Automatic annotation (TrEMBL):
Protein name listed in UniProt: SulP family inorganic anion transporter
Superkingdom of this protein's organism: Bacteria
Organism: Streptomyces albidochromogenes
Pfam families with a match to the protein in the record: Sulfate_transp (PF00916)
Keyword Repeat on entry: no
Segments traversing the membrane: 12-31, 38-58, 78-96, 108-132, 162-179, 191-210, 237-260, 319-349, 369-396
């Protein structure tokens, strides 16, 4: 035992993480439009491959609710057979970013964009899974899902099966929320698993008319990408999806790593190595034709809270998933789909950062606006373009705020007019600078002092030189410009 001083703690934690992972793996797969077993395959790879690799010792990887929207769009556009090659190429891209030491730069992404991304994903998941809970086909677009909800509820009212399904989905959410109020001993079983077990027992005991998970068997769903799938790489359309998978999976994993680091006192995350670990896992998932993986904060926090001390807990959770998928695949066929939809509605709700939005609005209205625009863009367009819109807004806002400029004009009535510029003179402030300078009289000598500027970009320098050359009247001294002696 001296070689493994934390074996018992890690073993116990691995059981908890396994119990949390099972309903999430299955639910994410079903919501993504792929066989349920593929979610388990990704969870197994997250434990047995990514779990072994260095990076973040306590965070756990697997299929994530945050990628369901992107995966569903990809499967709808390119088909399940192309999913493997998309995930494979995204994994190779993550490996390249890790080896090029780009992982640490993900910490530089604006928090408002990240929160906006999670908020937008959460809204689309909630809207889509309400249809799934009712057993109704959901519209494809995010706006269509939200706009169609009143009609979907109206249709459900006329169908006993839809009403029973919706009631089961709502009951699942209620169990998850209320489970935290049960005695501590009961909470050894995670709320999501308890909700699925109760829904399954209820469906069997009362012969409820609800759809259940379709089972194909573990080996039946593993389909390595073939030549046709690789042929898709010749078209430009699939590359946008690959880049989106790589960037968003990386961002979610590395932000999760930062959150997990705040939960424990153990070794800190090595971001570039964690990027390599995620890339290695996604490369294997791609070769197996499975779902993409990310580090998942729900599983990771469960791992830490259960007392895990080393990476052994996450590796063991992969072993338990493999044994479950191999020995009890028929158990999946008993799980009602509305229960899985309820789990994902709850997961989507948890993604919406209500407290952060309120806090940002009070302290930084500009950041709150970026968050809202990012979320709305994801719902209105798609996830990748929505995130790009949010990033562009964040860059513009930062550029505007960092280009503070103060212009001071001193006119003593006689002698030269003195103009002092201080701060940062960038092209964003050029109109203001020129308006101030061009308003000065042309029949007086002018001295412009630039020594207070921290930064003078090329556009401003050129514009100042042109203004100085043409401003003074022919019989007046030329404009004198003084720069800092550096």
């Amino acid at each position: 035992m001296s070689k493994f001083p934390y074996l018992w703690q890690d073993f116990a934690a691995s059981i908890v993480v396994f119990l949390v992972a099972v309903p999430l793996c299955v639910g994410v797969a079903v919501a993504s439009g792929v066989p349920a077993e593929l979610g388990l395959v990704t969870g197994i790879v997250g434990g047995l491959v990514t779990g072994f690799l260095p990076g973040s010792s306590l965070q756990v990887s697997g299929p994530a609710a945050g990628l369901t929207v992107l995966v569903f769009e990809a499967v709808s556009e390119f088909g399940v057979t192309a999913l493997g090659v998309i995930v494979l190429m995204a994994g190779l891209l993550q490996l390249a970013m890790g080896f090029l030491r780009i992982g640490r730069w993900f910490r530089a992404i604006a928090v408002s964009v990240v929160e906006g991304m999670l908020c937008g994903i959460g809204l689309v998941i909630i809207a889509g899974q309400i249809y799934a809970a009712a057993g109704i086909k959901a519209p494809e677009s995010g706006i269509g899902k939200i706009a169609g909800l009143p009609g979907a509820f109206a249709d459900a009212l006329g169908s006993t099966k839809a009403l029973v399904s919706l009631a089961m989905g709502a009951a699942t959410i209620a169990v998850i929320v209320l489970w935290k109020k049960t005695p501590k001993k009961a909470q050894v079983v995670p709320g999501a698993l308890a909700a699925v077990l109760l829904a399954t027992v209820a469906a069997l005991a009362f012969s409820l008319p609800v759809d259940t998970v379709e089972v194909e068997g573990l080996l039946g769903v593993i389909q390595p990408p073939g030549a046709d799938a690789f042929g898709e790489l010749a078209g430009p359309a699939i590359w946008g999806t690959i880049i989106a998978f790589a960037l968003i999976a990386s961002a979610e994993s590395l932000f999760s790593a930062g959150a997990v680091d705040r939960l424990h006192d153990g070794p800190r995350t090595q971001y570039d190595k964690e990027m390599i670990a995620q890339g290695g896992g996604n490369t294997v998932c791609g070769l197996l034709g499975a779902l993409p993986m990310t580090a998942v904060i729900v599983r990771s926090s469960a791992n830490v809270n259960a007392g895990a001390k080393t990476k052994a807990s996450r590796v063991l959770h992969g072993v338990w998933l493999l044994l479950f998928a191999a020995a009890l695949p028929s158990a999946l066929a008993l799980i009602p789909l509305p229960a899985l939809a309820g789990i994902l509605v709850h997961a989507g709700w948890k993604l919406i950062p209500f407290r952060q939005i309120a806090g940002l609005w009070r302290a930084h209205k500009g950041e709150a606006l970026i968050l809202v625009v990012t979320a709305v863009s994801i719902v209105a367009v798609n996830m990748f373009e929505g995130v790009l819109i949010g990033l562009a807004l964040a860059v513009i806002k930062t550029a505007w705020e960092t280009s503070h400029l103060k212009t001071e004009v001193i006119d003593k009535g006689s002698g030269p007019i003195q103009v002092y510029l201080s701060g940062n003179a960038t092209f964003l402030r050029l109109p203001k600078i020129l308006d101030s300078l061009e308003a000065l009289p042309q029949d007086r000598p002018i001295e412009v002092d630039l020594s207070g500027l921290h930064h003078l970009d090329h556009a401003c320098r050129t514009a100042l030189e042109n203004w100085a050359q043409r401003h003074s009247a022919p019989d007046i001294e030329p404009v004198k410009v003084t720069t800092a002696n550096r």
